[in-house]
Design brief:
This protein is α/β, with parallel strands linked by helices and 218 residues long. Strands 1-8-7-6-5-4-3-2 form an 8-stranded parallel beta sheet. α5 links the parallel β6 and β7. α2 packs parallel to α3 and α6 packs parallel to α8. The longest helix is centred in the C-terminal third of the chain and has 14 residues. It starts with a strand and ends with a helix. Bound molecules: D-xylitol-5-phosphate (DX5) and zinc ion. The site of zinc ion has 6 residues, from β2. D-xylitol-5-phosphate (DX5) binds next to β2, β8 and α7.
Length: 218
């Protein structure tokens, strides 16, 4: 699959979200929307009403990363707020099959993710039921952390499974993505590159996206 870049809203100025998105709208492939509940992770970001208010300002795909203890309770509301996909943690749903069904029932694509200490074996039985496999390359909760190099082995392993079974799932990497780490993750087999700090905290977000793009070009 061609490489795609999804900026993470978490690093944008929350008082100027629509403006920040407008700057990169034409040069990125989707928007990564990090929702944190202060329970699953020790941080709180934003929720449904912010997503709903942002929705009319962009046509970008809303890829929603739910760092929450009970995200499925809100699937219908995430759909109504304008989300296109929900990605949940395997640590929250050790058997995510009913969760995937519920997401699809509400017209949402479904992704599965795992924290750095969780092995790929935890998600392996469910890989064929998902649209998106998100490998966390930092501990979820905060932007601006350093990329964990061991995550690359997970990307390689997931790529092996997806290819050997002929699946269409995206392989996404999130956390500490810079042109350098994005290049490494591309070599390991990732398709979708989530970057917060590297884009929204850059002096020139347009230039930052171009640098990421050239680092992941085949
Ligand atoms: C971390 C979030 C990431 C975060 C990445 O909990 O899931 O999406 O925004 O931020 P950077 O790119 O700054 O590591
Ligand atoms: Zn995220």
């Amino acid at each position: 699959m061609p490489a795609r870049i999804y900026p993470s809203l978490l690093a944008a100025d929350f008082a100027r979200l629509a403006d920040s998105v407008a700057v990169v709208e034409d040069i990125v492939d989707g928007l990564h929307v990090d929702v944190m509940d202060g329970h699953f992770v020790p941080n709180i970001s934003f929720g449904l009403s912010v997503i709903e208010d942002l929705r009319p300002h962009t046509e970008l795909f809303f890829d929603t990363h739910l760092m929450m203890n009970n995200p499925d309770f809100y699937f219908e509301q995430f759909k109504e707020a304008g989300c296109d996909m929900v990605t949940v943690h395997i640590e929250v749903y050790p058997d995510p099959v009913p969760t995937a069904e519920k997401a699809r029932k509400h017209g949402l694509k479904f992704g599965l993710t795992l924290n750095p200490p969780t092995p790929v074996a935890a998600i392996e039985p469910f890989i064929e039921t998902v649209d998106n496999l998100l490998i966390m390359s930092v501990y979820p909760g905060f932007g601006g952390q350093d990329f964990i190099p061991e995550s690359l082995h997970k990307v390689e392993r997931v790529r092996e499974i997806v290819d050997s079974e002929g699946l269409a799932a995206d392989i996404q990497i999130d956390g500490g993505i810079t042109p350098h780490t994005a290049g490494l993750a591309r070599k390991a087999g990732a398709d979708v590159f989530v970057a917060g700090t590297a884009i929204f905290q850059a002096q020139d977000p347009v230039e930052a996206v171009a640098e990421l793009r050239s680092a992941v070009e085949d």
